[in-house]
Amino acid sequence: MVLYSFYIFDRHTECIYSRRWTPTPTPTRPSSSSSKAARPPSTASTVSSSPTAAAAARAKAVDDEKLIFGLVFSLRNMVHKLGGTDDTFLSCRTAEYKLHYYETPTRMKFVMLTDTKLNNLRPYLHQIWANLYVEYVVKNPLAPVEHPGGIGVANELFERALELFVSTALPA
Amino acid sequence: MVVFALFVISKSGGLIYNREFHAGMQKLGSNDLLMLAGSFHGMHAITKQLCPNPPVPPSPSSTPAANLAPSPFTHRPTGIEVLETSQFRMQCFQTITGIKFLLFTEPQQPNIDPIIKKIYELYADFVMKNPFYTVEMPIRCEKFDRGLDGFIKLRG
């Protein structure tokens, strides 16, 4: 069982927390058409200096966040249209990965990308929200009510508890 | 077994066939269906890009067919294959030419792959071999309709 990444989106469509367990892709990999801008200049594949590579990886990560939000948003809308408003989007799978989705009543979206062999992780995402997010972020007196740019979400307690939860509830 | 509906989306994202077999999903107008098909086409492309681990092509020495000519089709990530919701399950099968077959079934429906392969077969037999059918155009082939009806009823 492999976990690839985990994202929390707030109700303003912003990614307030993201966590990746995969190594960042190397810029030498022939990337798909969209990341042309992120690709270093032609000869730089082996000698690319680390700051540009890091910046490219960061840009790719931000792009991924936006793409994932757009994807779950449109899939959710499609599901509502086809199945009625009381239908909920649970997960979607490709040959390479599976995307698990949980939405709280306050429209926060929890998304996790894993390998394809897992069953639905919705109960686990609910646990993360109820036992970790509410405990360590919402009840934190120093965290703001909203989290523009992810302020206050990635605090030490939450990070540590998430790491512990993932390693115990979803052992590799 | 309950199969709710079948959509066929052309390689450019247009809805070329839609058919409802069983009530259970929302009734939608043809404009809504066209819009859904188009947006699904886009989402399918996005899921391809999001692939967190690019698949490694099988090394030529390890495969038994090493002495065959290399495949002309590069190994690339697939888009959405299964979408699960609380009320239905959607299986998407994309042919190598880019046509997508979307089959909507009950949430816990096993063995959809052979059904979708059979539908592809019916498509190949009754649509592609129909001399009056132009590709990328809406499918209006009576034999395809009848073949689908017979097949789905037989399975149900």
Automatic annotation (TrEMBL), chain A:
UniProt xrefs under SMART domains: Sybindin
Primary residence: endoplasmic reticulum
Endoplasmic reticulum in keyword set: yes
Region (Disordered): 20-50
Entry GO CC: endoplasmic reticulum; Golgi apparatus; TRAPP complex
Family annotation (Pfam families): Sybindin
GO biological process, one term: endoplasmic reticulum to Golgi vesicle-mediated transport
Keyword list, A-Z: Endoplasmic reticulum, ER-Golgi transport, Golgi apparatus, Transport
Compartments, as annotated in UniProt: Endoplasmic reticulum; Golgi apparatus, cis-Golgi network
Family: Belongs to the TRAPP small subunits family. BET5 subfamily.
Quaternary data: Part of the multisubunit transport protein particle (TRAPP) complex.
Name used for this protein in its record: Trafficking protein particle complex subunit
Organism: Karstenula rhodostoma CBS 690.94
Upper taxonomic lineage: Eukaryota, Fungi, Dikarya, Ascomycota, Pezizomycotina
TrEMBL record, chain B:
A GO BP annotation: endoplasmic reticulum to Golgi vesicle-mediated transport
Superkingdom: Eukaryota
UniProt-annotated location(s): Endoplasmic reticulum; Golgi apparatus, cis-Golgi network; Golgi apparatus
Keyword Transmembrane helix: no
Pfam families cross-referenced by the UniProt entry: Sybindin
Residues passing through the membrane, by range: none
GO CC, one annotated term: Golgi apparatus
Family label: Belongs to the TRAPP small subunits family. TRAPPC4 subfamily.
Protein's name in the database: Trafficking protein particle complex subunit
Source organism (scientific name): Karstenula rhodostoma CBS 690.94
